[in-house]
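New to this. Please check both lines:
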Amino acid sequence: MGKWPEKYVIGLTGNIGTGKSVVRRMLEHLGAYGIDADALAHRAIAKNAPGYQPVVKMFGRWILNDDGEINRARLGKIVFADAEAMKALEEIVHPLVLSAVDIIISRSRQRVIVIEAIKLLETNIHAMCDSIWVTAAPRETQIQRLVKNRKMSESDARQRVDAQPPAHLKTSAAMVVIENTGTFEQTWQRVVAEWQKIVPQTEKEPEALVSERKEKQFTFQILRGKPGNSAEIADLYNRLRPAARKYSREDVMAAFGEKAFLLLKVDSRLRGLIAWQVENLVSRTVDILMDPLVEADQCLPALVEEMEKASRDLQSEASLVFVPKRLAGLELMWKKIGYKPVNPPEISVSAWQEAALESAQPDSVLYFKQLRQDRVMRPI
């Protein structure tokens, strides 16, 4: 039994580029609460965070950007090339991350928790878990993913991959190994099979129907999107974004590895959706699609409200909504539900500002809302 006796905690690790985050999000779709310990480590050394001054003192002010934030790329060039430097950094950051993980789990409502951490086995976290899962992929696949998804140069990608311990050291310690080399659907089926072994039969996957609303003369339903909805979601993208690239069912299946969907149905037909993710305690709505035949100002607030409910359940501190220009003009509607248009530099908390910059969408207006006053990370 782990440190948190009322929870079932999965420790999820694997070398860089093996798809840990995809597997974590799959578990979140199934009802687990996901924690990205690596993102917490980044947050622990942000400006004014407790790890900031010790790291600057250890490595020098040259690692800082002009705005005073730590440039992680510069820091990475030091620690990934020097084992002693990496050890010094970890001695500063790991206790802060462990404290944050403890706070978040103690506040979570979900029974199953998944902690994603690349250094899971090298820290005390693994001893607190009930099960250890490891993702694996061939070396060349790891490098290709880093180049494609993280925009690294090939030489930087190879340095990152080669700086890590051999993969077999992780897989040999695993209770579950996820070979993440096939399609999203193949990996999904593997994760579902393992999930069903740990979740009692009485604990079913959350129902798809979230709520049913009536506005004026029509009734609509809001449903939680499932991988099984991939074909109709792809059809909606292709119908409402005809100038964009064509989406296939497989494209949407893969998107479930990055985000969650809330679907709007009128008379059983899919008429709209929002897609969002909660990363590092910040909600980021990155896609909004609304059929012009539907009155957006009647339906969109309900979708956003349900997104906020789900986000608060995941302890999200703030909501960032990237609104397409056609819907950004509904200023009174956005104001009524508590949002205001902002530019990322206007956001006061560095972690929220960083999330806004990371998730920025072309041809959209950023609307912002703080979801809670008692910030989860403030205790550390």
Summary: The longest strand covers residues 269-279.
